[in-house]
Records
---
Amino acid sequence: MGSRDGSGGHSTEDQVYAADIQSIREAQARIAPYVHRTPVLSSTSIDAIAGKQLFFKCECFQKAGAFKIRGASNSIFALDDEQASKGVVTHSSGNHAAAVALAAKLRGIPAHIVIPRNAPACKVENVKRYGGQIIWSDVSIESRESVCKKVQEETGAVLIHPFNNKYTIRRPGFDAQPLRMCGAEPKGADDSAQSKAAGKIITLPSTNTIADGLRAFLGDLTWPVVRDLVDDIIVVDDNAIVDAMKMCYEILKVAVEPSGAIGLAAALSDEFKQSSAWHESSKIGIIVSGGNVDLGVLWESFHKR
Amino acid sequence: MGSRDGSGGHSTEDQVYAADIQSIREAQARIAPYVHRTPVLSSTSIDAIAGKQLFFKCECFQKAGAFKIRGASNSIFALDDEQASKGVVTHSSGNHAAAVALAAKLRGIPAHIVIPRNAPACKVENVKRYGGQIIWSDVSIESRESVCKKVQEETGAVLIHPFNNKYTIRRPGFDAQPLRMCGAEPKGADDSAQSKAAGKIITLPSTNTIADGLRAFLGDLTWPVVRDLVDDIIVVDDNAIVDAMKMCYEILKVAVEPSGAIGLAAALSDEFKQSSAWHESSKIGIIVSGGNVDLGVLWESFHKR
């Protein structure tokens, strides 16, 4: 299944996707020395609330506190020595930023990280801890991209794109078992749900959600995967995210960030319970994608309820 | 090594302990169906702070949120059917209470739980969730014990003692590897450290620590184990406990209660760094014993600093 074409894409039947089973296996081997094998946790108390068996893949315990090190280390260790020698650059408000800084440190090359001024303090601290060189930008995607481009021109660094990047795509659905794949999005940044409904990429003029890790957009590499291989996108509001986050702390004993709790919020939502995925599944796997949160911000979000 | 005597104790050389390798293996087999195999986590960021490799055995992910289900299920599933039929009783302000309630529920017998009025709300909630019948007592150990005795007399329930119980003792030190065993205690409840210094059981008139799970005392079954088999007791103050707890949340991404963070606090303490255990070890295992904490209380403890 799939063969490389000139642009590095891979084809399945008629549609070309940015990742296939071969590239995923290559990625697995490439990143194995640099990532943790994170545990899967479960809780009979949460199962009783959900009415299904839930399995939490705890990527919040991953290096740099989120799944992003997988894509970042895959991208950076796939570079040849000449490309790598000039370093890497990215723009990100959070977990991808720290992951690129750490992967670059592991490879021993410079990392230039463009960070918008509204990034959570703990995520900026992570970038510093891993030795990333920080360049500030405004919040808009245009400002982030233009500052990033300037750094690229000045340094020759390779861009490790935060989301539209074939080395960071984690394409699901190759498993031999019948598997329903659902995405989860906050109401204030539901571009994937809107795009699926419209049948084309919809880019939002702005986003408004507590889930700072979910404010990114679809790109031309990720859109075909979401369009064709994700069965459904469950949209939840910030209240549901905070409730799920609280449940993660109090019952699962796992410190998650808002974006990391959205999978549980989706699994507990009425929308999901009315879906065919719910009725056809007895076991539900949830990726807890990240755990980088300012404890002060966390408390305020609980307290405001 | 060791053989049963009439009182159920086990002897090693001259000293009789309440647990030996055989009783521990029996316990392991008895409780296996009822407990999680919890993961061991590590963090290079915390290792860098500590100056050693630390391995965190995360018993906060255990059933009922703490290691206590091990002793409770061992005690309750060791009862014969006639003993079990009348139910069990215990007094505890927290994790042992919830663990006894859950283990009794798993065995299908009643659990009477005597809880002092100063118990953390989330731990009381856990007892309720597992169907334990709550009887309130005053805070003093005398009140707890007298209420407990009354319940025993009225119901015929078997006492599952919260700490002085041969089925809940987790005796370390049988491993073939050279292993240094250190305990950790809060300054406001350091009866073990004082007892080791005095060579006899010292019982404190009162305790004062944020670590609500560590306010219990030594008993005649636990004292010989602590006296002979624990190399050293590291005493840390509540500030160090809160610092370690914050590190668990922010870096390890694990939601721990104060008592669960004390092992890390001890590993980072000056006292430990001056000990021979520190100088003779490259790898340090830490038991993260529990994760049941009221988020409001947690925040206040961070905020007060």
---
Amino acid sequence: MELKSFLKNLKLMSTDNLLKQVAFIKEIDKLKYIQRKTKLFNSDRPENDAEHSWHLAMMTIVLAEHSDKPIDVLKVLKMVLIHDIVEIDAGDTFMYDTSKNHTNTEEELLAAKRIFGLLPTEQAEEFIAIWEEFEEGSTDEAKFAKSMDRLEPLLQNTSNNGGTWAEFGVPYQKVYDKKKAIKHGSTSIWNYAENLINDSVEKGILKK
Amino acid sequence: MELKSFLKNLKLMSTDNLLKQVAFIKEIDKLKYIQRKTKLFNSDRPENDAEHSWHLAMMTIVLAEHSDKPIDVLKVLKMVLIHDIVEIDAGDTFMYDTSKNHTNTEEELLAAKRIFGLLPTEQAEEFIAIWEEFEEGSTDEAKFAKSMDRLEPLLQNTSNNGGTWAEFGVPYQKVYDKKKAIKHGSTSIWNYAENLINDSVEKGILKK
Ligand SMILES: [Ca+2]
């Protein structure tokens, strides 16, 4: 291939990628309409998934030093920024809803394929792989990302007189069992979180 | 110093950092209440700064390949995630408000010092430096971050029949002059954006 036609093809490919990427960027705007059960700090206004994802990204940058293992912060950021995008199709599942399976439901996998599938092939595959890595939770990056995802609502509920624990009558042991996942990412954050949970019982905003 | 007391001090320092970081994490929740003039895609619901920052972070990950210069994506992500946090104290300034100076106002600098100042000293200094680098806009990372910040409302306004351009009567030349900054980050994204602006004139949603 001549250099000129090679460069022309490269430009066409780049434009083709850009159009797909813009379609994806428009589609994910819908994450701003997906409401969580958890409320903002000191508030009764529900948080949406885009706000939640931004907050987890900020927490990742700020708290990365507390990870027990060395982590690729850029990878964790990608995880927390995209982890809830499947909820555009599949909806938010409340952490303490026992009627639903929380790991990688078929509905969520279809959603991942449809939404990330708007991107150029290579990028779509990368995003699906990152989302699956988060869901699986076995790499050091996924463990830290999940500890951020558990910590945010803990901070919110303790600032909201029990928040969703009070609203839905979630008892201490269930909260403790869910939050324990924080320990897989960071011992020091878990120590802090465990204290917060125990304090909540003492304050009467979490029932033992 | 003995090893034991050295380790004890290290643990105390880590706990001290964590408490400051949690205070910061709670404070920045307020970004979710700062409303922008721009509306969500195909919508008349205003976007807030946390949603906006999440969207820019997603755009950064997705569009980084179009940067004219090699960029440190993690650095750009930090920039776009924190770039509006000063607005918690200083408020949102509308891009086309000619009565206000948009670069690094004194009010914003005070806000940066107060809010990032909640973090441990080293981290506070890092965040203030990143925010200043973004505001200055001279590094390759800042240029790309700013092109994301200009592109999002362009995509929103064109999906909203002119959006804030129509609402506040902003003419073609003003829009063009502001959006031109996209070119400093990416020629290919600028080519796309320029077409979008010209199409908007043809469609009658932007007045020439
Ligand atoms: Ca979720």
